[in-house]
Design goal:
There is one protein chain. This protein is of the alpha+beta class. Helix content is 23%, strand content 41%. It is built from three helices and eight strands. A hairpin with a 6-residue loop joins β6 and β7. It is elongated and about 85 Å long.
């Protein structure tokens, strides 16, 4: 065989070898599996835990004599739960996820359109010093947004399929008496203190 033919044969062999090596690269370029096909996940965002007074009254004592006084809530405010959903998203599911994140998992919460309890609350109190007081009843509340995502049928991509925003409340009511001159930390009592003015 001449040197020219030998060179051509070597070149052909190299080209063939190159084709064999490139074969598996195409198969390896397939998208990797990143999630379980069809799996649905919910995530809350911009969620806020707070409290709202739904019934209250204010009393001002102007002396330091001991006085026993019974008073009840006189003013009320309406608080209604709601959830606005878009895409493939049930509003009742979104409200449940929001409630779990803001007012607590396993607690009874206000459904969409439900109004928090505004029933009057009475209490007998013995005042021993002058000051301003607020008697109140209210609920723990939560608000924010929820996103629904779902893994595609191949397990290769996670798609956002719906979202929504809303607010709800814990059905169990809390009550109290707040001294307007003292600091408070409870979420509902913080709202009660805004009635001191």
């Amino acid at each position: 065989m001449s040197k020219k033919l030998a060179a051509m044969a070597m070149a052909t062999g190299v080209a063939a070898a190159s084709i064999v090596v490139l074969g598996p690269v195409t198969a390896a370029s397939a998208a990797p599996t990143i999630c379980e096909p069809g799996f649905v996940h919910y995530k809350t965002y911009s969620s806020t835990k707070s409290g709202r007074v739904t019934a209250w009254a204010k009393e001002v004592k102007n002396d330091n004599q001991t006085d026993k006084f019974t008073f009840s809530t006189e003013q009320t405010v309406t608080l209604k739960a709601h959830f606005t959903a878009t895409g493939n998203f049930e509003g009742k599911v979104g409200l449940k996820k929001l409630a779990e994140a803001t007012v607590g998992a396993g607690v009874e919460f206000g459904l969409a359109g439900e109004i928090a309890n505004t029933k009057a609350y009475k209490r007998e109190v013995t005042f021993t010093s002058r000051g301003k007081w607020v008697i109140w009843a209210g609920v723990y509340t939560g608000s924010g947004g929820v996103v629904r995502t779902q893994c595609n049928s191949n397990g290769t991509k996670i798609n956002e399929t719906g979202s929504g925003t809303g607010n709800t409340f814990q059905r169990a009511r809390v009550t109290g008496l707040t001294n307007c001159a003292k600091p408070v930390s409870d979420r509902v009592e913080k709202d009660a203190k805004t009635k001191c003015g």
